[in-house]
Amino acid sequence: MDDATIDQLLIIGGVLGGLLLVAPGLIWLERRMLALWQDRYGPNRAGPFGLLVVLADTLKLFFKEDWTPPFADRFVFTIAPGIVVITVLMSFIVVPFAPGVIVSDLNIGLLFFLANSSLGAYSIILGGWASNNKYSLLGSMRGAAQMISYEVFMGLAMMGVVLLAGSFSMHTIVEAQKDMWFVIPQFLGFVIFFIAGIAETHRLPFDIPEAESELIAGFHSEYSGMKFGIFFVGEYLGIILISSVTVALYFGGWLGPDFMPPLVWFILKTFAFICFFILLRASLPRPRYDQLMEYGWKILLPLTLLNLMVTAGIVLLNKGI
Amino acid sequence: MVTIYIDNTPYQVKPGKNLLETCLTLGFDLPYFCWHPALGSVGACRQCAIKMYRDADDKSGRLVMSCMEPVSNNQRISIADKTAVDFREGVIEWLMTNHPHDCAVCDEGGACHLQDMTVMTGHTYRRFKFKKRTHVNQDLGPFINHEMNRCIQCYRCVRFYKDYAGGEDLDVFASKSNVYFGRSEPGTLESEFSGNLSEVCPTGVFTDKTLKQHYTRKWDLTMAPSICQHCSLGCNIIAGERYGDLRMIANRYHGEVNGYFICDRGRFGYEFVNAPARVRQTTQLGQPVDEDKAITQISELLKNSKVIGIGSPRASLESNYALKKLVGETNFHKGVSRQEQALMELAVSILNTGPVRALSMKEVEKADAVFILGEDLTNTSPMLALAIRQSVRQQPLHEVNALAVPEWNDAAAREIIQQKKGPLFVATVAETKLDSMATKTFRAAPQDISRLGFAVANLIDPSAPQVSNLHEDERAMSELIAKSLLASERPVIISGTSCQSDSVLKAAANVATALQKRNKNTGIVLTFPESNSVGLALMGGNPLEEAFQKVKSGNTDTVIILENDLYRHSQTTLVDEFLTKCKTVVVVDHSQQATSAKAQWLIPAGTFAEADGTIVNNEGRAQRYFQVYEKMNVKESWRWLTNLGATAGITPMQSWKNIDHITKALAQEEEVFRGIERVSLTSDYRMQDGQRVPRAPHRYSGRTAMLANVTVSEPKPPEDPDSGMSFTMEGTRAMPPSSMIPFFWSPGWNSVQSVNKYQEEVGAALRGGDPGIRLFEASATQSHYFNEVPEKFIAVDSKLWIVPLHHIYGSEELSAKSASVAKRVPLPYLMLNAEDAAKLGLKEGDAIEVAVGGDQLRLPVKVSASLSMGVAGLPAGLPTLSFVELPAWGLVKR
Amino acid sequence: MISIVRSLWLVFLHMFHKRETVQYPEQKNKLTTRWRGRIVLTRDPDMGERCVGCYLCAAACPVDCISLQATEDETGRRYPEFFRINFSRCIFCGYCEEACPTYAIQLIPDFEMGEYNRQNLVYEKKELLIDGPGKYPGYNYYKVAGLAIGGKGKGQAQNEAPPVDIKSLIP
Questions:
Q1: What top-level class would CATH report for the domain C26-139?
Q2: With touching defined as 3+ CB pairs under 8 A, do chains A and B touch?
Q3: Is C166 an interface residue toward A (CB < 8 Å)?
Q4: Structural domain total, chain A
Q5: Environment class of C62 (CB within 10 Å of its CB; exposed 0-12, middle 13-18, buried 19+)
Q6: At residue B185, does pLDDT exceed 80?
Q7: Which ipTM was obtained for this model?
Q8: Model-level pTM greater than 0.95?
């Protein structure tokens, strides 16, 4: 085995291990941050800063009864939570953490990311359908509609970046931001991408498939124990994914002054967006389902198309000169 | 029917009643104190004020007391009128000026008519600033507690005690707001009906002292409809339980049987249920054994040995029938002596196949001439004595009617009647409490009482057998009785088994039969020794002596004794011999007694409070009593016997799962019990919404704490397989069917006065009809006279004809085991005629030795002026006296 | 849109606000006297048991977690023979205190009643009865009730006239 292969395996192991460690850590982070913004302390008893609450939560999930309802479609019910984790982890293949720290710099990187996040919708649809419960099914129907719709705007919003960088490769896109982060020329694209990202991860305020207060946890009503835990992990991985892709596409990826290594820059920027995700949860109420769809199709779609056309025009103009 | 307008709404009502009972019948909530449905109106408390208008144009109207105004056509009244409402509130406010701040420590609280009426009128705050009047209490004996401070001077107590029940030792003293209701000096209340004061008193002046010893509020009691077990009249009662003990007996209204009252033996005799001498565990030779093991072993005996069964007149029909099925018809014995069995069967045949109808107590109250033969009713069947106290008013009431005074106008009616009384003839061995009411009394030996009866029958109908050698006094007496009976409209002849003489019963039957020929309204009432004597007599079976014979001749080695103390029905030596000869004695009973002490197997049966069953009263009315609560290890006798039978493989018993199956089988098998399955609703009966009838009121407290000391996890409440009632407060809060009323309650009416809401009209039958089914009616076709006129009783020197004398407290087995009643049980004595006593040189209290029925007794002498020469009285059934077959000749010695 | 950004900002600023949390076992909150916590049975100023066993608390209890048995001493003073509260059922609604006519049952500001064994939450009279009048000093039910008890005969309560001489006919 040559050094390159070993390096490659190390990167794969590092990314996988890192993500799976960080994802549950976000439980603690989210609860601490929410508490912070609600004038509380959050978990602060178990271990230093309450960090062991992560362990406690994981243990609890492991020891909970792993119950499959007798009326559920057993096979589908079991694999559904796995799908979301697998598809999100697959997306990380194309995320450039630092120069050289990328599992595979595919030249169709963004398309690969889009493809995988579309597949993630199956997790929700299958989970809700297999539960054989009307609330779960309602939740998964909402989820499907929401994710497919916002996929469209997300893809279109990213096209602005692709136009400017001239490549679908994430690595190339980051490199293209040496002089200026794309957030400046593509501010509108960034905003739409981020909104679509929230909808993709069905995080608050767009947690319409779960909608605790109306659908009593929606597509995962029937899930308990570690199956529920996997859904949970999938959601946090989604947050990290959207945050890191945002950083890569609009905030110059690992680029930053030299006093810190590029990986640290990337992690710091990603962390900031994760915190922003939590801030959204702490402050915004959930829109109605129809409001969400209306907002997507009637506002975001025209805006993205406009953004795309203007960007394309500018690019063409620049080329022409 | 006439029309009256209440607050401008027309109602069709019965004329002749007063407005208060009319309003209550119509369902209005109108407060009252001094009025009582059984006692009538006196208009003393001013609480039931309403507005009455001259006509539709009269706008001002005038205040009247609704209890004093008769209903008339097109009457216009208002209950809601402001003046009337204010007046009623004002009256309560005055009453409350002296009422103490006692509710928290008052036994009436929560079931208090005064509380209900105060809330109903809206009075809340005492504005009167001056001092409260106080009174000193009296000790009124073991039954009734006295707390005079609480009195509101409604006079109901003395009106009941003196006017209605004929008591003489409770009265009213002093004047104005100082009036005092009590005895002239502290002491036990003498009346047999004193317990009713606790229900008649609208507040807590007179309360149940036995309840006070284990006090529980009415809302905390688990209650069930039950039937009194202490005599043959079958009064309807409510039995209440808390924390596994029976706490209280209250009257349960029955329009035909007991009405609003019960006697003290019934009310206070319940404590035997809680007594330490209860059988609470299956035992073999005194050692506790597992009940399944016991069932298996005893059922082995059933299969492998010759078994006889001994039934009981105090056990339910179901239990006796289960025993009969278990051992087979020929091996079933009634558990009473040959003499008693013959008397019971004779009495039942008089009622069943004779021409005269057996009357209910309600009908006795309406009778206008009464002839009692041989029965000291106050002591054998107390409530019948109370009914007779009302029937002597029937003839004088004609005068009241003639003056157009309504009968319910009590003060006026009593003023008109004064001391006048209708014809009542009491022919008994010794003096009775009814003597003071009697037109004439007759004291003689049972034979002579019988002869008097035969003579009366002969005078009424010459085709009845003649009596020879009648004494001049007896002839005059019989003529007077015959004349009075013939002159009356609804005569009733009363007799019973208590003087142990078949000829007295026959004489009573002859008088009734003779009268019936002349007057179709004639009635007869016979009393029986125990609560289910009639049911047992109808059941068939052999006398106790035959069981003894079977064991003696070696035909039998095992005996199952059902709820029976044989020592009360036969001589000690005979029973001793019988029990020693038996290889195995199985006793199924609830209380330890002499027989159970000798049993190899002792099985804990339920008392009436822990069991369901049906008993038949003296008029042939089958009535169901319902289990009140579950007690660990204790089961109904019929359930034990059915389990035994099912384990032994006796065919019909394997399919008996609850009481319905047994009553159904009994009704199908025996003609006379046909229809008995309809006595109560079946166990699958549910209220309209599919729920059970709750035994506990909705305010029942402590569910999650009462057993928490044992374990904090609450046990599942027991389920009742035998009735449509639940043991908890879960169930439908609607009015239950009349046979299943566990307690009387209506919104705003927490006291027993809420019974008004359960009646079709005030004082009439319960809604849906009074419960119980009469098993037989007189068959009018037969008219046959008994011809066996006994010989005249002739006193014999040095011998005394000893007859049984009954005592309300003591002569009945179960009530005598209860602590409060035990305090009133007399010491054994021998009652002698004054002349006989003088002849023997004895004074009151001297000891005398009597040899009777093979027993030697040493007893103090009681001298009586009225007992006949040559006759002596011995108390029957006292716990301290052993059984003697009476009447019998006794040899006396100083 | 602006309002969304504004609320995000305002929520973000809460990061720098003072925490509301009281760090319970180390810091303790001040409870007011009418705080509804552990239930006690009190005594009257003469140190007699206030509870007269009237069953009103038990009847008022919506979860039926109070059970008792009234009895009386030889002088006629009523008291509970046993008094049991199943705190594993109690919802601390305070209805029992409201229903109590003698101020005997009171809810006090103490909630630290946790147990590892549920059975230990069943309190009997010896655990409930305290040696003092609790929140209502001075009140003695028997001083206003008409019942005679040891040391207080008929007519000796507050605002009571001496017992009537029934032999007297003076108006």
A1: alpha beta
A2: no
A3: no
A4: 1
A5: exposed
A6: yes
A7: 0.90
A8: no
